[in-house]
Structures are given as structure tokens and as C-alpha cells.
């Protein structure tokens, strides 16, 4: 079932989200100081391609620099990404087949708000 949902997700939402996050990652990697944000964007892009069967876990050893980076990300990009995820999930919730896709879109909000110190792992 996860594979079917991932394929439907990929066609209707995942490819566009992944392209957006990948472009953001490229832009962030052009500037030296924002490379950690670029790496986080690439990680989110991979998650956006195939979200079903995977989850986000926080790294307990993340330090103060991660906190500072997440605050900067939240103010510059995170809040806008979260709003975008909420707005794109609303039309998905309208149809019955889109409900799991809307849930997956909402599930991506925490990692789009605070990407540093987060790992994406497969569900057991």
C-alpha cells in the first residue's frame, strides 16, 4: 500500500515539492555560509519524493548551532514553507483519494520548519 501511495504522491505533489526543495538546496549551496541549509533542503527533497513509510526523528545530540540555525531557517523560510504545505494540503483533503496525500503534506511541516538536527528514517 505504501508503494501505491508513494507513486500517487510522486505524480500529484512529490515531484514538484522535491524540485522546489532541490532548487533551494542549490541556491543555498552556492553561498558558503548557507551550505548546512542546502544539505537540509536536499534531505527534505528526498523525503518529499517518497514520504510514505518514512518518518522524521530529531537528533538528541544536536547542539546550540543547530538551534541557532533552525531559528534563522524558521524566520527566513520555515514559516513560509509550512504555510505552503498547509495551503497545498487543503485541496488534497477535498477528495477521498487525496486524504492520505494531505496527511503526508501536513506530516512534512515539522521538518520544513526546523530541518537542522532532523533525520529521516524508514519506519520499522
Describe this entry's structure for a reader.
This protein has 124 residues and is mostly helical. Helices cover 72% and strands 8% of the residues. A two-stranded antiparallel ribbon has the order 1-2. The chain is globular and about 40 Å long. The model has no long low-confidence stretch (mean pLDDT 89).
Strand-helix topology:
Blueprint lengths: L1 H29 L4 H15 L4 E5 L5 H31 L4 H9 L1 H5 L4 E5 L2
Antiparallel strand pairs: 1-2
Helix pairs in contact: 1-2, 3-4
In brief:
72% of the residues lie in helices and 8% in strands.
Structural class: mainly alpha
Helix content: over 70%
Helix-strand pattern: HHEHHHE
DSSP summary, beta strand count: 2
Tell me the strand percentage band.
5-15%
What number is the mean pLDDT?
89
Placed side by side, the strands forming the largest sheet appear as 1-2
Largest sheet: 2 strands, antiparallel
Q: Overall 3D geometry? A: globular
Number of H- or I-type helical stretches: 5
Radius of gyration: 14 Å
Q: Span from first to last CA? A: 15 Å
Oligomer: single chain
Point out poorly predicted stretches: none
Features:
5 helices; two-stranded antiparallel sheet; 72% helix; mainly alpha
